[in-house]
Structure formats: structure tokens, C-alpha cells
Amino acid sequence: MIEFRAAKKEESRIIAELYSISSDGVANYIWTKLAKPGEDILDVGERRYEREDSVFSYKNCTIVEVDGVIAGMMVAFPMVSDDEIDEDPVLAPYSKLEEDNSYYICGVALYPEYRGRGIGHQFMALAKQQAMLKNLNKISLVVFENNEHALGIYKDLGYEEVKREKIVEHPMIQHTGDAVLMVKTLYKEE
Question: Which of 32, 71, 116, 132 is the most buried (most CB within 10 A)?
């Protein structure tokens, strides 16, 4: 049985682990910069997701369980662009890829053994429902151009490329090329 539910604070470490998977190294890069001497980067991620006063909070996470076992998660929230570009050159491209007044899917991840079962598509349908409940007409996400599998899925689901930025190469980030902002409009505004 597949069940989607709101995340709990005590699941913040699992969220951090899954978010690390979804970001292909970007989260690890950020967490390394925030880590105290000797601190494990997953501890940093866990601490961040335990917060309640940030978009990077367990409160913006949906967990999926398969037969009572956590299989994955989605982090999504309303995006309000502040036009402020991150000063860190590695992170600057991502801060340029924000779609104001959209429901931003920040990350979706499934443990490998749960992939290929349609759960990712169910997460995308859930994001659409959540966006509509928040009266947002657009859903946005950022995908790496060389993640052709994900790019193809998003295109098939009606997402369109809006903008792209060159990735600043770093040993922790698993992709090169461009990061691509994709947006799906949910309904025509009159």
C-alpha cells in the first residue's frame, strides 16, 4: 500500500538524507559550508529540517510510505522570489532560477528500491493539488540538463523550460552543464 502524508519533525534526518539524494550534491555543498568543525553534514541537514521558521522545514515535506516503510519524500513550498542572488559563485546559478508566485518543488527523492513504480508521478500530481489549494497557478522546479530521464518526465508532464543557468563545477555537485528552470501553468488566467 502506498500512502502520502505530512512529514513529522522526528523524521528530519530521513528528510535530510533524501534531500541529499534529490539535490545531487548541492545540499551537501551547502551543509558542508554550515557544518561546525567535525560535524557530519547530515546532522546539519537534519538540524535545518527540524526548523519551523524556514522553507527548508519538515513542515514543507510530504513523506511517502510503501507498506508502512518510508520510501521517499517531496519538499515543496510557495516561491516568492526576492531577486537577491546568492554571493557564493557555486550557488548563484540556482538563486537565479526562481519563478515568483509559483509552487516550487525543491526536491523529490525515492530510495532506489522504490523507483520505477509511478510514485514520482504521484508526487507530481500531489504537488499540483497542493499548488491549487494555495491558489497558485504555476508549479516550478529546477532540473539538471544532463539528467535526461527527469527532464523527459517533466516535459511529458507539461513542464516547459523557462530559463537556464550554467552550473559552476564543484567536486561535490554531480552534474555539469546547465541547471534548467521548468514551469507548468495549471490553468489559463482570464
Answer: 71
Helices (H), the chain: 12-23, 26-34, 41-50, 92-95, 119-133, 148-156
Collapse the DSSP code of 78 into the 3-class scheme (helix H, G, I; strand E, B; otherwise coil) and give the result. strand
| Residue 190 covered by a domain | no
67: left (phi over 0), alpha (psi -120 to 50) or beta: left
DSSP state of 137: S
Task: Tell me whether residue 159 is in a domain.
Answer: yes
How far is 83 from 44, CA to CA, in rounded Å? 26
DSSP state of 161: E
In single-letter form, the type of residue at position 35 comes to A
Q: How far apart are CA 163 and CA 178, in angstroms?
A: 10
Nearest to 45 by CA among 61, 66, 33, 27: 27
Domain tally for the chain?
1
Q: Which positions of the chain have pLDDT values less than 70? A: 83, 189-190
Residue 86 domain flag: yes
Which domain covers residue 70, as residue numbers? 2-185
What local confidence, expressed as pLDDT, does residue 189 receive? Answer: 64
